[in-house]
User: Fold this.
Amino acid sequence: MMRYTPDRCRLIELYEETKISQRELSLLSGISESQLSDYAHNRKVMGLGVARTIVRCLRLDCIDQLYTWRKLD
Assistant:
């Protein structure tokens, strides 16, 4: 069985790709800018509910797009 762990959050890249700022995402999602900054700078890993909310607000296809992933041994 293959297992994965989130490696690096891609929020900063996704802000550029989607043309949605951190401030706008905060307003759309109800997640504070400081919390979004913690995720974007890899100080915290977002939970599944937060990830789904962000995916919807950024109009992404799936949660996998929020992080680069590392395979565990």
